[in-house]
Design goal:
By secondary structure, the protein is an alpha+beta fold. The chain has two domains: about 1-20 and about 155-183; about 25-150, Galactose-binding lectin (Jelly Rolls), CATH 2.60.120. Helix content is about 25%, strand content about 35%. It has helices at about 1-20, 155-180, and strands at about 30-35, 40-50, 55-60, 65, 75, 90, 95-100, 105-110, 110-115, 120-125, 125-135, 145-150. The strands form four sheets. A four-stranded antiparallel sheet has the order 1-12-3-10, with no helix packed on it. A four-stranded antiparallel sheet has the order 2-11-8-9, with no helix packed on it. Strands 4-5 form a two-stranded antiparallel ribbon. Strand 6 and strand 7 (about 95-100) form a beta hairpin. The protein is elongated, with a radius of gyration of 24 Å. The two termini are about 20 Å apart.
Length: about 180
């Protein structure tokens, strides 16, 4: 009976190791084009869960995109220096936001949020995730940013894994101790 229990415990442990951690999906990589206006922002296909924490990071933070023909309008995903251009306040789809020109911004069912070059770790987001370039005029924009989006495992998930490791370790210890007394 003990061998059957030990075999079941080892099997459960192996299944835990081989199965993905809930909420820790592999990163989703998307390319965000600066020329896409808000009505055509990239729909990532991700349905955000308010109980999950998400990590957003631009794959190459030094990548430049532009809000126009002059180099003074070039920026990373953090946006153009507000000393050069006053950040615009824009209302779209019932939401209002104010970010630097050229900033990488997300939109969920609660409104706009800044992503920038990241890493940006956020929770409480919900609904479909769209991402785009913050601007008031899109036809002269150029460039793109590659964005990585991933769910962060919750502390309770890690606690359960550690508890599982400790249980297997204890079972192995007891088994070895019992074997030493019999010899």
């Amino acid at each position: 009976m003990r061998k059957l229990f030990l075999l079941a415990a080892v099997g459960a442990f192996a299944a835990t190791l081989l199965s993905p951690i809930p909420g820790a999906n592999a990163s989703t990589i998307v390319t965000v084009e600066a020329i896409s206006d808000m009505s055509h922002w990239l729909d990532t296909g991700i349905n955000l869960n308010p109980a999950t924490t998400y990590d957003f990071a631009v794959v190459n933070p030094a990548t430049i995109w532009s809000a126009g023909a002059t180099t003074s309008r070039n920026s990373t995903a953090d946006g153009i220096d507000p000393g050069l251009f006053t950040p615009p306040t824009i209302t779209f789809d019932g939401f209002t936001g104010t970010f630097k020109f050229g900033a990488l911004v997300g939109l969920d069912s609660n409104g706009f949020f800044l992503i920038g070059t990241g890493p940006t770790v956020l929770n409480g987001l919900s609904g479909d995730l769209k991402v785009g370039y913050w601007d008031t005029y899109y036809p002269d924009n150029t460039g793109s940013q590659t964005l990585s989006i991933s769910a962060v495992p919750e502390p309770s998930t890690w606690a359960m894994m550690i508890l599982g490791f400790a249980t297997i370790g204890f079972i192995a210890y007891r088994r070895r101790s019992a074997g030493l007394h019999l010899a």
